[in-house]
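Expect sequence, tokenised fold; for instance:
***
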Amino acid sequence: MERSRGLDGGALKGIAAALMLTDHVGAILLPEVLALRCVGRLAFPIFAFFIAEGYAHTRDFGRYFRRLAILAVVSELPFNLENGVVFDPARQNVLFTFCLALLMLRGLEALGRERGFGRWAGCGLVLAAGFAAGELLRTDYGGWGVVTVALLYLCRDGRLARLWLLLAMAAVNGLGMGSLTMPVFGGEMPIQIFAVAALPVIWLYNGQAGPKGLRRAFYVFYPAHLLVLEGIRTLT
């Protein structure tokens, strides 16, 4: 049987996991090496893309949401330890961002059945609510992270959609997310703009999910690698 071109879900998630690990090595162990954080900026859009894809193809939204919510709760302690505390109400891990995004997509889908001005006004309110929730709850990547999932969901098909996605991602990542900067031509550039480079990688996805066992392993990887990196920092 001829293999499909591009990357299946397992391969693409493997790339995202490697990028996330690179980012967190830079954040936890080598904060002085800014290049690691720049490379790591590509991880979030890829994982956000899979949240959008997961929502589009799930047969049981409730089960999908509960699984992600449970993992978010389990991952909160490792996430807090990364920041040097056991409990930190001021910051929540990225899986809570994705939970908010799923609720927002649910709302957008419900409003998609409406017609006329009410549909667009309602969708605008849902997007605003998702953004506000991410900001108020102080989830990782905040409201812009929630909106990123919506962009990846709404711009999944067609070349024109890809162009709009490219422009929107450049705006969101260049202006909205992240505070780390690097010197460029006498000025400062937010390193979050490197996240846009994840789009060509995402577009290599061939629509095949990949091995189920490998897919499930990624649910463990997020909290596990944070604990390992924090353990290394504690011992060194």
